[in-house]
């Protein structure tokens, strides 16, 4: 990874941390998608905590604080934890959430006990093992990056090769089993992928905060896209951006890297939840306000059309009284209609201009067409099971089906009138 470090306009230590954070973000972002979409986000938390005793046992077995050896121990412990969770869930009455809690608490407790035992020993090499709890990105070395890069490339390549099988198992395990896919094996495999992400992230954010790196990129990316093939690279990109940004901010502020990366990720999630196009809270709130305003204006437009046919043009006060709407709401709607050139005034009385009358007739036609759809839509021989838009039924169905719907409604109205006679 030396060539990449040399390309960055940073000093050596900051460049190493930034590359490590990027590798973590890419891997955890892509692999965490499978945990979040399976509604098994806490599996990553359990595996991260389960890796801690593996680090301690690897140190006790070798007596050396070699990063590669410790990560192998973490991976082995994570695999054992993953298999235990699956085994407890499959072979007992314990629910998945309880199985996760059992593995998380037991392995993490064992890790704390082993850390305490090692800290009380006279071995000077044990210094720094507690950093695997919260991470120590500043301690990353170039050889650590090489190991992280290999794990990242291999895991992402495996996901690419098995993508279709993983996608089928993820969204429809019953169908996957029916077509002969090894569903249980694939579910275990998806859990194993989380172990890889955990191993990559232990040195950077630690066991306690690792779950955030598995969940945050997917949650943010999920606000932006719906297709799994797009979600994976988007989540990986967000994870990389969060990791690098958090690492650079932490380096400049001289604060712990792991917590800052997580805080940056949480900020990205908040922004995505609020502002994501089409589904963000503020976006949907603004759309809801526009829809309510349009509904009010159309309602007042129809009320005015009805009042004009029933008698002389009304005043705004008479229109509000006849429609049963609040006077201020009616006044706002009339102001909007006047600005759009749909009203004409006769003293204090209002009536529709030619454009307003045309708009009122269009609204009434849409309402009639929607009523016809609710009553006779089942009779249309549509080529697919579409869900039409109530505000633009003709555009949703097409002119041919809309005309057919009007014909069915007219025939039904004629039959009802004949029966009444």
From TrEMBL:
Membrane topology per the entry is: Multi-pass membrane protein
Instruction: Kindly list the places in or outside the cell where this protein is found, as annotated in its UniProt entry.
Output: Cell membrane
Instruction: Give an example GO biological process.
Output: transmembrane transport
A Gene Ontology cellular-component term: ATP-binding cassette (ABC) transporter complex
Where exactly are the transmembrane stretches of this chain? 15-37, 42-61, 67-86, 98-120, 145-163, 170-186, 192-216, 228-248, 260-282
Q: Which UniProt keywords apply?
A: Cell membrane, Membrane, Transmembrane, Transmembrane helix, Transport
Q: Which CDD domains match?
A: TM_ABC_iron-siderophores_like (cd06550)
Where is it chiefly localized? membrane
Q: Which PANTHER family match?
A: ABC-TRANSPORTER METAL-BINDING PROTEIN (PTHR30477), METAL TRANSPORT SYSTEM MEMBRANE PROTEIN CT_069-RELATED (PTHR30477:SF3)
Q: Which family does it belong to?
A: Belongs to the ABC-3 integral membrane protein family.
Name the chain's protein: ABC-3 protein
Q: Which organism is it from?
A: Conexibacter woesei (strain DSM 14684 / CCUG 47730 / CIP 108061 / JCM 11494 / NBRC 100937 / ID131577)
């Amino acid at each position: 990874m030396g060539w990449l470090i040399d390309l960055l306009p940073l000093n050596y230590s900051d460049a190493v941390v930034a590359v490590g954070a990027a590798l973590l973000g890419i891997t955890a972002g892509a692999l965490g998608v499978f945990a979040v979409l399976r509604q098994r986000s806490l599996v990553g938390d359990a595996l991260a905590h389960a890796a801690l005793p593996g680090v301690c046992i690897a140190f006790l077995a070798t007596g050396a604080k070699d990063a590669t050896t410790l990560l192998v121990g973490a991976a082995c412990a994570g695999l054992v934890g993953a298999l235990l969770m699956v085994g407890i869930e499959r072979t007992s009455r314990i629910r998945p959430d309880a199985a996760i809690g059992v593995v998380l608490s037991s392995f993490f407790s064992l890790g704390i006990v082993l850390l305490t035992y090692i800290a009380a020993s006279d071995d000077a090499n044990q210094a720094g093992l507690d950093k695997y709890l919260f991470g120590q990105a500043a301690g990353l070395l170039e050889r650590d990056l090489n190991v992280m890069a290999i794990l990242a490339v291999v895991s992402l390549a495996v996901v690419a090769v098995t993508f279709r099988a993983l996608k089928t198992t993820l969204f429809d395990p019953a169908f996957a089993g029916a077509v002969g896919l090894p569903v249980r094996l694939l579910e275990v495999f998806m859990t194993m992928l989380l172990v890889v992400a955990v191993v990559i992230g232990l040195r950077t954010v630690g066991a306690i905060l690792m779950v955030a790196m598995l969940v945050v990129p997917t949650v943010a990316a999920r606000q932006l896209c719906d297709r799994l093939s797009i979600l994976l690279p988007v989540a990986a990109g967000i994870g990389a951006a969060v990791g690098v940004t958090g690492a650079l901010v932490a380096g400049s502020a001289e604060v712990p890297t792991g917590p800052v990366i997580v805080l940056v990720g949480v900020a990205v999630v908040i922004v995505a939840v609020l502002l994501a196009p089409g589904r963000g809270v503020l976006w949907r709130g603004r759309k809801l306000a526009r829809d309510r305003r349009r509904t009010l204006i159309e309602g007042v437009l129809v009320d005015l059309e009805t009042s004009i046919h029933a008698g002389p043009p009304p005043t705004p006060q008479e229109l509000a009284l006849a429609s049963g709407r609040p006077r201020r709401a009616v006044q706002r709607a009339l102001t909007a209609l006047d600005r759009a050139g749909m009203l004409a005034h006769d003293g204090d009385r209002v009536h529709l201009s030619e454009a307003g009358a045309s708009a009122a007739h269009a609204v009434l036609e849409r309402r009639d067409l929607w009523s016809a759809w609710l009553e006779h839509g089942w009779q249309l021989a549509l080529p697919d099971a579409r869900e039409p838009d109530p505000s633009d039924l003709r555009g949703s169905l097409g002119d041919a089906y809309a005309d057919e719907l009007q014909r069915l409604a007219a025939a039904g109205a004629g039959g009802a009138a004949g029966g009444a006679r």
